[in-house]
């Protein structure tokens, strides 16, 4: 990679969502504070450990719903990196919130990572940063191929059922909620609103937006519902077994 600092050492975690689909777990805590069963650690704890293992030394956590619960945990926990918390003075939307949080990064002239606060994943962020740099991108998003939550039916051209496939991989790649941004990206974000409807489409038209497919076998799961927590616990046993 180019530059004096080859890999980002700073990151933003967007942790302000209400997590309404995870109730009752989120009745008394923000979504990133929900624990992965069997680990004794909240989602954000796993994220911070992963970021630190990938060379991140400073993280800005954007808080919202029940921010004081998250802040109290961050103060009391033994964290592997420096953490700053920010709270939007008013709802700014996803893009505005990201811009607001980025203003607290310690090195605005260097690249940075960002992640949604409900993602539990493990893959090489350094490989993603190298991918970003090689393509000269302004922004790079990780791409996942999740499993469809329903069984699929295979048929032939005559309509005969050939097979049943339980939870097959999706034929489409999706935004995995993990990003690498060049320093100039923050200035392109809206002060209020959704960057996925404004900034990302603009960068895509200009061929400045890259997509990094998660490596084969990389673990990725978005924690949106109670079922996701159950599945994550099962997958954890499989990974450690």
UniProtKB/TrEMBL annotation:
InterPro entries documented for this protein: Mannose-1P_guanyltransferase, NTP_transferase_dom, Nucleotide-diphossugar_trans
Pfam families cross-referenced by the UniProt entry: NTP_transferase
Domain named Nucleotidyl transferase: residues: 11-236
UniProt protein name: NDP-sugar synthase
